[in-house]
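--- STAGE predict ---
source: upstream dedup step, 1 unique chain passed
mode: sequence only
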Amino acid sequence: MKKSVLLNLSLLSIGLTAAVNAGAQGTLASDAEVLGARFIVDAPAAIGGVKDFTFSSDPAGTPWGGSLSTPVQNVEVVKAVDSEACATLTNNVTGKWVLIYRGNCEFGVKAKNAQDKGAAGVIIWNHTPAELINMGAGAVGGSVTIPVTFISNEDGRAMTNQLSAGQQVFISITPWGFNNAHDLAIVPGTPAPPPGMAIPISQFDGTDIPQYRGYVGGYVANTGTSTEADVKLKATVNWTPLTGGTTEVHKDSAMATTFAPIDSIKYDLFSPNHFVLNPTGVGRYDFNYTVSANDADMYTADNSHSFSLNITPNAFSRGRINVQSQTPLVTNHFRLSDGTASLTWGPLFYVKKGGYHMSHVHFSVADQDTSDHDLTGSNDGSVEVFVFKWVDGSNGGASDNSIQSEELTIKGIAVKKFTTLDSNKTMLAAYIGDATSGNPATIVSEDNSYYWFAANLNNVFGLSTDANANYHARTNAAMNFATSKTPDYWSPAFTGAATDLTQGGRTVRMFPFGTSSSDIDTLPVTQGSAVPAMTFIQGVFVVDVKQTAKGSADQFTVYPNPAVANVTAKIGLVAATEKLQVKIIDGVGRQVYSEVRKNVQNTEVSIPVSNLPAGNYYMIMISDNNAMARPFTVVGK
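--- STAGE serialize ---
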């Protein structure tokens, strides 16, 4: 197969799941890196399957502990006594893997205590929901020689509950396979998912909406030693309304007639068909994938994968969502830069039917200090999400599936001002105000529009992400394998670094765009950490634009425009503000200037711009009550 490296990402992550890029196609080492080491619960079946995890020799951190280079299969798991393993264990764990609760002492101490009692390996489970982290060795981790893994709170609690109920728990961990003759595995997270993990019911009208189509396909590994015949990746899609029974609504598959071990990952198992989602109300679509071949698979625990699309009253999300709270499920916090460059990043949502108030967003951030503390001193005490409308080709050029600054129009700004209750990784809510008037609840979505929710992370934050969501295969299916091809977008990013994703300094590359090639075998794993976990909440009912509130009485003007040497913001507020923030962002949301003034009402801020590249910019004014944006242009001398 042809191999194409689409993106060269410089990664800085906070709580990054293990992921490395592939090397040459067809070698065990590179394919194992793409597939990724797998942590599998073999029994009991009620909690079985492939689980997300990190490990102490994670390449994203400093290696310590034993490696996972040799498979372990069907090993027994026991709970540590006491559960946190901060002191000598009091139960027999010899030859077994020990389940330990996170907290109250260093990871290395927990692992060393288990090792001293004869444990074969360690599983530490998180004390907070969803998120995975990298584990530091601490003072004694250098003495640990057994493997140390880390799993989510949900998976750890499921194991604990089974063990507490008297059930035995068995796991397998492998960097590739188990030396079986016939052994296929779905590359975790890579089958084509639905068009989102949450879309409001208002967006569906029974017609074939290209942006909301369903596709079938993905990536499969042959981890056995034999050539497989008639390898089939099959998807069954079920619909379950909020009230009522489950109905099968679609079934399709993609097949490879032969699949040799030397050609050990298939990247082209895609059906040419698409199908139309037509929900009858609020409910859930379940996409259930399985892989099979003519010869019976000798290890089936990694032969299935599932996604769910929630049809909601008013929530959009590209990552998984807690339907009750409308908040995203967060597995880690992630940056696509080295921490020195200004970063704008966030999800792109397609709105089929507009006319709804654009209310607010939910997300979380984490700065480079991962200890829990309030964020009031970070990033001028706030973080912004800029709501851009994107029209591809609107700058007079051809549609090219990339966002250019001339194609973006800022429509709203959601500002979250930090309080002492806001700390690293806490869920934040930011309400969207009109970028022109500054008033909240005045932005109304438009029909058939793309909106990019670009979080201004500056060079401070990592953004909440969901490593369980990966749209690469969906985009590949839609643009390269479907009979009726259509563009598919999901996660624009701009880093501003020397090796960024730009063309001419003004283009945002849409993951996984950047090349026209259809053969992609390095991104399924790394992209799994690159789905922004942010939910966009709109109003439930259609509103008349005329019903929205009038603009703020605050005055905000920017001159001269265009600017050459300096640009001035003239600000007149109805009431004095304790803190006034004045920022400049470029046309794709990167912050290039920030200033804070205290206890002001009327002021002028003059800012030199001769050092800025020619192009489109916005002056942003954030007061106690609202945020406003004014466009201006910098021209060369």
